[in-house]
Every structure is written in structure tokens, then in C-alpha cells.
Amino acid sequence: MSFSVRVVLCLTLFGSSIPFVRADGRALPKPRADHPGNIFALGEDVVVTLPGATPHAWQAVDYDGKTVAHGQGGGAVHLGRLPVGYYELRPDRGAAGAGDRISLGVLAPLAVPTPKTSPIGIDVAMAWAFLEKQMPAVTSLCALAGINWGRDRLNWGEMEPRQGQLASHTRYDTSALTQHRGGLQTLQVNHVCPAWAGPAHRRFPTDLRHAYRFYQAMAERWAGKVLAFEPWNEADIAVFGGHIGSEIASLQKASYLGLKAGNPRIIACQNVFADHAQAILADFHANQAWPYFDTFNLHHYAAVRQYPNIYADFRAVSAGRPMWVTEFNVAVPWSGDAQRREPSDPDLRIQAERVPKVFAGVLNEGVQAAFYFMLPHYVEHQTQFGLIHPDLTPRPAFVALAAVGRLLADAKPLGKLKSERRSSHALLFHARPDGREQLVLVAWSDLSHPQLPLPARPLAAFDHLGRPRPTTASSLELSSAPVYLLYPPDSLATFARELPPPPAARLGGAPSPVVVQAVWPENRTLLGRSAYRVSADKPEQIPLFVYNFGPKPVAGKLSVAAPKGWKLHLPGQVSVQPGKRLELTLEVDLRGAESPTCQPVAVRGDFSSAGTPILSLRLLPEAEIGKK
User: Fold this and answer.
1) What is the structure's pLDDT at 625?
2) Containing H/E element for 190?
3) Residue 502 to residues 176, 320, 328, 442, 463: CA-CA distances in angstroms?
4) Percent of the chain having pLDDT more than 70?
């Protein structure tokens, strides 16, 4: 895209004045003239429209409940220039025509464009949660909040309603283009199988060539617009298919090869885990899928104190690839009106305080991209996840998100300050708030109000909403509401700290165009053991498929390693044409085996220059079900 065209796009999305454009092409975002969501930049005149035609009394209050303005009237309400923070316009409920409170936010404007290396992201769910006409406004809100990455949602069946026939234009295309034009980097994810590709929409396609071709087509279609793909969402839990580790690995290999065939520059992410179940992770790792993912992706909804254990489990099977957490949150409930599904005022404060806590916690674990779940108004049962209302106006947590985006821009972990209090948290980062290289300390306490000793007076301090606060040289009283303290980068030696966990050793290997897949009925799998159930009393035949996703014919040898006392048989010599698959049968006979238990079975291939693919299966004799 030429510079002149890029400037035109920025004018369209961000306002009437030409924005600063950095060398990497990202523009400095400016508020739109119509201020969607009632989001304003510091220094702007705040004008909010009251609903209804009947004038009535109103008052504007800040996050702490302090009245900052009041008046009588209707239509446009002029509040003047307000400090950074969250505000509510509360009409007098006793007056005729009075409605619900109206929220608004004032953000500190970004001094420089958000670095494209910044880890701060959010699950926008743009294509699913917003109308196409809302997408530019939502993208603008993300950009103003310093968001670097947005996660979107895709429905494979809508994109490819019939095999081999992609839809000419969809809301997903609009979403991808809008986010690209607005400066967001986009991660896309799918978790739906079309009816023509498999018997169950929540399960993987039984023929992996469907996945290969679809992701090849999508990577090519959105080259330069969608930068990363997760081939499936949370395949390891029942709601999204309940797949075992070997199945997840086989889909990953085929999808990776398809994505790279469509666009070699795309980031092919691992199809993300929802849980850190040891059996599934071990099964996945045994299938040596690491040459087939550029990032290792995970989700969690746990408290910050649980992060070290969670990340240790995932890091052990990450093969040293960059870790991305593409959903994380500690959500709050909604209460009261079932139509509005709004959290109570105390829970809204808790939600806002948790935003910097969970970001600091995941970044301290070495995550390279962190996608908070989520931006839109979204409810599951009694839980409200969203940071904005259906009309795009903010909850306090959105203003807290903007503070994270600005103050933890490009954050890299430096560790946790040493403390005798387990309830105190003080995490240190190298970051670029407002484009300046600085140390940023994020600190809070779970209990009481302890004092945090400080090595020196910080350059600046901000509360969890990004509001400036006084600084002190000796100590800081902590509370449940996090604070940000900024220090010069050369002051690192003054902090006594525990270093963040190191990344796992990077494992080598190259992807093979040959992929081996097992297909077994879902009702004969045991998810908790990540295993296929097989009979101990009669022979079993497990269908295997050998795929050739390369451009040339392949020929090679297959071998299978049998656990002691097991009888396994598999054809040895195989050859597969490009784009084809060969169906084989793995014969399993456990009759006469001594004390059969759940065992891994490894099918290995030797295809010379085409590589050495592996399929590892955990087979569970049905007599062992119920045993640990």
C-alpha cells in the first residue's frame, strides 16, 4: 500500500487531521469526530447526548462518585475538559423522561503509535459481536487504548458453504480489512466444522485435506491483513470437540502446512489449549508437533497466584516457541436486570482493578502476546466478560485497559520484587510508555494495606485507570487497586527481585509434508486419559491415514513400536501421490498381554527427504477404564 493511500485511510478512520505515521506504517490514533462509545482524549471538550426529548436534571460523577458537573436540560450536555478517568452521567430518576446512567471515558492520548512488538491485545470478536457499520468505531476504540493485537472469530461453514467454493464476500472480510486499516494486527480463530466436512460441527474434519485447503485459501485471501491463525479454539474441552492430544497434533500439522502454503509469512499458531490437563499435553507433545507451530497458545481463567503452576505445565510442552495467551480473565458476575446484565458497582470496580493485575501476571510469565477476554458485552450464564456495553460505551475496565495499553507498551518482564508478604505483588517490566524507554512497576496487595519499600522516588505514578497520582521516595501503601510506578531504565540494579521464569529450551526439527492421522469414534475415546479405548478381549482395527501435502510423490516405510506383550501390525511400505491420502489399518491384539495398561504406541515413518513423521497414540484397554 502506498503512503498516500495509507494517509487517506487514516483520515477516514481517525478524523480530519493528518496523523503521524511511523516508519512501520502504523498511524498515531486520534479520536473520531463522532466519539463512539463516549470516549474522549485528554484536552478535548466532552459533549454527551442525553436520551429523550424532555429536559431533566443530571449530574456527572467520576469513578470515585465525586460530582464533577451538574445541570438541567436535555440533548447535548457539555462537560468541558475533564481529567483522565471514568465518568457517568446520571439523570435524575425522579424526572420525567429520565433514563439509565450514561458512561464515558477520558483517555490519555498516545504520544507515539503503539509498537508492533507490544504484547497488549484483546479478544475483539469483531465479526461475531459487532455489525459491519460498527467495525470502524470499534477498531478506533482499540487503537486509542493502545491495543496492538486483536483476536477475531471465524465460521468455516460461512466462508466455505460448499466444498471448494468460498463465499465471495463476508462479514469476516469486512472485519479483517477494517482492523487492518485501523492499525490493529489480527489473529483469527475457527472452531466450527462445516456439515459437508464432518458429521459434527464441534469436531475436526475427518479428512485433514479439508483443513489444509481451507487454511491455505484463507491465508492467501487475507495475506497482509490477518497476520496469525489459530486453526481451532480449545479443542481439548468437550464444548469444542473434546479431542485428545494425538488428534490435536494431527490437525495442527495439516493446518500449519496449509497456512504456510497460502502465505509463508503468516504466523501459524498452535490450535489453542483451554486446559493444562497433563495427559492431553503429554499426548500432544509425544506427537512432536513443534515444527508445525510458530507460537504455543493457551487460555486460562485462574487467579494470578495460580499462574506459575499453569504456565509451568504449558511451558514444559511449548518446545521453546513463543507463548501466546489468547484468552485470559478473572471475570465478574452480573446482577439485577436480566436484560441489562450489568455487574454491580462494586463488581465493576473489581473488574477494573483486575485488568492490570492479570496483564502483569501473564507478562511476568514471559507471554509475548496477551489477549484479554474480551472487549464486547458478552455473557455466559451469570458471568459478564465484556469491557464495553452494547452501545460501545465503556465500563471502568475499558479505561483500565487503556492504561495497560499505554503504560505497558512493549513490556518485557524483569521479575517480581522480593517481599516477605505473599499477599503483596510488585512486578517489574521494561516498557515504552509514551514511547520512552522506562522501567514500569505494577504493584498491588491482596490483603490489608501494607507498605511497599521503594528504592527511589519514581519519575511518575498512575493508578489503575491511568490517572496521575502523587509519588513518594520511601514507600508506597498498597491496596487491591494496582498502581504503576515509572523509573529510569538505568535504575534496574536498585531493585531486589526474583527473576521471571526462563523460556523452555527450543526443540529442533523440520515439518514433513507427510502427516499420519488416526480416526476413532468419539464415544471410544477417554478425554481425561487422552486415549483411545480398545478391547483387551478381541483384536481391534484402528483406521490410519497417511497424507502427502507436498508437491511430489512420496514413498517410505512405516514402523510401529509395540509395548511388551502387545501384538501390533501395520503395513510397512507405502507411497502416496501429492494431495492424496492412503488408508491403512493398525491391527491391535491385546489378548494374552500381561496386565495390560494404558500405553503409548508410536507409528514412525521414514520418507527420506520428505522427513520422518510420527503419530503417537495412547491406547487404553477397556478393562482398565476407571483405574488411575
Assistant:
1) 60
2) strand 185-190
3) 35, 10, 21, 20, 29
4) 93
Mean pLDDT of 95-116: 84
Amino acid type, 578? P
Global confidence as pTM: 0.94
Q: Report the distance separating Cα 460 and Cα 607, nearest Å.
A: 61
The answer to whether residue 51 scores a pLDDT higher than 90 is no
Same domain, 356 and 480: no
Q: What confidence score (pLDDT) does residue 54 get?
A: 62
Q: By CB neighbour count within 10 A (0-12 exposed, 13-18 middle, 19+ buried), where does 304 fall? A: buried
Q: Give me the pLDDT at residue 91, please.
A: 78
Question: pLDDT value at position 228?
Answer: 98
Q: Which residues are CB-contacts of 495 (< 8 A; sequence separation ≥ 6)?
A: 414, 417, 428, 439, 441, 455
Domain stop point among 365, 390, 408? 408
Contact 2, 8 (CB under 8 A): no
Are residues 280 and 148 part of one domain?
A: yes
Mean pLDDT of the chain: 92
Q: How far is CA 90 from the centre of its chain?
A: 35
Q: Is the same domain home to 325 and 252?
A: yes
Spatial neighbors of 571 by CB under 8 A, at least 6 apart, are: 558, 584, 585
Please report, for residues 67, 349, 532, the alpha-carbon distance to residue 344 in angstroms, rounded to integers and kept in the order given: 20, 9, 46
606 is a domain residue: yes
Range of the domain at 101: 31-107
Supply the CATH number for residue 491's domain.
Answer: 2.60.40
In a domain, 24, yes or no: no
Give the sign of the dihedral formed by CA 295, CA 297, CA 303, CA 305.
Answer: negative
What is the distance between the alpha carbons of residues 294 and 292, in angstroms, rounded to a whole number? 7
Q: What is the CATH number of the domain that holds 584?
A: 2.60.40.2310
The answer to whether the CB of 52 falls within 8 A of the CB of 98 is yes
Q: What is the pLDDT of residue 593?
A: 80
CA–CA dist 213, 254 (Å, integer): 9
pLDDT band, residue 18 (cuts 50/70/90)? very low
Looking at the structure of the chain, the number of domains it has is: 4
Give the confidence band of 97 by pLDDT, cuts at 50, 70, 90. Answer: very low
Q: Which of 60-64, 224-228, 452-456, 614-618 has the lowest mean pLDDT?
A: 452-456
What is the largest distance, in Å, between two alpha-carbon atoms of the chain? 89
Q: With H, G, I as helix, E, B as strand and everything else as coil, classify residue 309.
A: helix
Q: What angle do CA 13, 15, 18 make, to 5 degrees?
A: 100
191 and 211 housed in the same domain:
yes
The CA distances from residue 382 to 275, 343, 354, 513, in Å, are 21, 10, 18, 46
Structural domain contains residue 373: yes
CATH of the domain at 249: 3.20.20.80
Boundary-marking domain end, from 347, 380, 408: 408
Q: What is the DSSP string of 566-624?
A: -EEE---EEEE-TT-EEEEEEEEE-TT-SS---EEEEEEEE-GGG---EEEEEEEEGGG
pLDDT tens digits, residue range 538-559? Answer: 999 999 999 999 999 999 999 9
State the average pLDDT over residues 12-34.
Answer: 62
Task: Check whether the bond before 218 is cis (ω within 30° of 0).
Answer: no
